[in-house]
Amino acid sequence: MDTKRLIIFGGIIAVIVIGVSFFSPKPQSKEVSSQTKPIISVSTFALYEIAKTVAGDSVEVHPIIPLGTDAHMFTPNPSQVADISKSSLFVYNGAGFESWAENLKNTLPKTTQVIDMSGHVVLLKGEADHHGEETDGEHHHEGAFDPHYWLDIDNMIKMTQIFDAEFSKLLPAEAEVFHGNAATYIGELQRLKAEYASGLTECKNRTLVSNHDAFGYLASANKLENVSVIGLSSDEQPSAKNIADIIATINKHGVKTIFFEEFINDNVSQTIAKETGAKAVALQPLENISQDELKSHQTYLTIMRENLKKLREAMECR
User: Whole-structure pTM over 0.85, yes or no?
Assistant: First the structure.
């Protein structure tokens, strides 16, 4: 083949190669693949942890309430509402915990399925022995159900089963993955429940005193007496008489610790502790977690174990 023909032949081959590479379908990139994942929006930290654990890499889970904020007082801004509207599934706590969700769910597009998780768990009435007075805030739950149901580990198991079922309907091809992830997490929850049962069996004192009635489910599940300064709403303000009543209760039962929440002002707890000689100790109700807790890879399981350690010390358990 002479030089001229070789050049012409090479040019033809080059044109063919360029044409094939231009018109042939390109493989989907990882980024495109991630964009096809269903988006799930959830409100509370407990819902977020379960959803992420069950979903694995198959579903994109978006937490709505920012880390480090009082979940009781949160209201989504227009941008967050727009994000929820893009979700295939929106799961919220319910039982009066997010007043904004009750209004929002009726405005979402038909493409967004809505689940009120409180309809799938066992709820307790808000009947703790507390001494708070209501204010005119918007986040009260008095006379209603206690919305902190994730602190009952049996409810966490039920919630995990719901996510497993819903994700399997959403992505049937990934059902086995969801079933496996859910089974593993439920096993971890059952071990945690056993630790609480054995850890709080023999205690010198079984009275749990807190500044906010967020621990009713934890107390009920473990046969503890639940006493709080204020009720289910974190924005209540106790009167001087209320504080005096709590001090009398602490002295009567020989309580050595009053618990408070990290995201709620602890001035009342510190005042009561000073008056009674009790210690004021933070107990995590897991309505939300802080940035520091997230960075240190804290989870529902690790935080609940830390709570158990604090309860055992406060109640002088063997």
Answer: no
